[in-house]
Amino acid sequence: MTDDRRAAGAPTLEDVARAAGVSRATVSRVINGIRNVDPVIQEAVRQAVSVTGYTPNRAARSLVTRRADAVALVVSGAGVEPEAAEEAEGAAASGDRGSFTAQVFADPFFGRVVTGVVGYLRPRGMHPVLMFAESSRAREEVVAYLRQGSADGALVVSTHAEDPLPALIAEAGLAAVLFARPARPVPVSYVDLAHQDGARLAAEHLLARGCRRTATISGPLDVPAGQARLTGFRDTMARHGHAYVPVAEGQFTQESGEVAMERLLAQHPDLDGVFAANDLMALGACHVLREHGRSVPGDVAVVGFDDSSAAPACRPPLTTVRQPVEQMAAEMTRLLLDRLARPDGPVTSVIFEPELVVRDSA
Prior knowledge:
The protein is α/β, with parallel strands linked by helices and 362 residues long. Helix content is 48%, strand content 16%. The protein has helices at residues 3-7, 13-20, 24-31, 39-52, 58-65, 85-93, 98-106, 108-121, 136-147, 165-171, 195-208, 224-239, 254-267, 279-291, 310-313, 325-341, and strands at 70-76, 127-133, 154-158, 176-179, 189-193, 214-218, 247-249, 273-276, 301-306, 319-322, 349-352, 355-357. The chain has a 6-stranded parallel sheet, sandwiched between helices. Strand 6, helix 12 (224-239) and strand 7 form a beta-alpha-beta unit. It starts with a helix and ends in a 5-residue tail after the last strand. The relative contact order is 0.11.
C-alpha cells in the first residue's frame, strides 16, 4: 500500500481483517479466490469488503493469480480486400490504421459485439482490450500480447476466409473463442448463426408476398457468412421453381449496396423483390430504388439481414432477419471464461437461430 493511498484514507486489507474478525492472510486468501476457506468466513470477509469499501489492488492480485482479469477483443481482417492487403500492411507498419478502424466503427455489427462482451464481463470484474489485426505484423502483436499474459484469452471477430489469426492462436495453445465458424477447421470454439436458415426465411417471405422476379445482393463471397446467406437464398428459391436468381456482390457497406442495386436494376428492370445480405446494403438498395422512382414495398419488396440499428432507421423501416449479435457475443465470452476455468475442456460450438422481423419494406 502506498503512502498516498493511506493518506487518502483508502481502506486496507488490515481494515477488512479487523471488520471481519480474521487475519490479514485469511482476507488475502478469500480475495484471491483460494478455495480452502470456510464458507462462513468467506461470507464474513465479503461483508467486510462491502462495508469498508475495500478495492483490491489489481496489479498485486495478478501476481498471485497469474491472471490479467482482461480479455483481448480482436477484430481481425475486417474491411481489407485481398488486392489491398499489401497497401494495408504498409499503412499498418507506418502506424496509419485510420481507414481500417473507421470501417470497423462504421458498421453497427461491431458495436453490438462490444455491447454483448462488455455486458458479460463487467459484472465479473473483467474488461476487454480492443485490438486490431489487419496485417501480419498486427497479428504477431496480438499473439505476443496473449503469450505475455497481458490478457487471459482472446475473443476473435474474423471476417475473411483467408485470415490466419485463428490458426496462429490455436498453434500457440492460447485460449480463444471465435465469432463465426472458421473457414478452415481449427481447434477453437466458436459461436455462429444458422445463416442459411436465415436466408431461407427471407426467401419464403418474399415468395409469400407474391414476388416472382427476385434478386439478391450478397455479402463478400470470401466471407463464410456471405457464402451461406447466398446459398440459403438460392436453394430456397430453387425449391420453389425459381432456377435463376440474379446476384450482385456487395461488401456489407451501404455504398456497396447502392452500387449493387444500380447494377441489378440496369440488368433486371422488372425485378420485384430484393434480399440484401445485411441491413446496411439493404439501406443502400432502398435509397437507389427511391432515386429510380420505385416504391418500397409497392414496386420492389426489400428484406435485409441482421436487425441492426440500420433496420428501423431505414425508410420505410426494414423487414430483416434478426441475428442476435449481443447474445452471441455474450455466449462467446462465456465460452472463453469457461475455457480459462477448464483449460482441458473440449472445443465446442454454439449455433443461434435466426428470426424474421417484419416491418414495412416487405
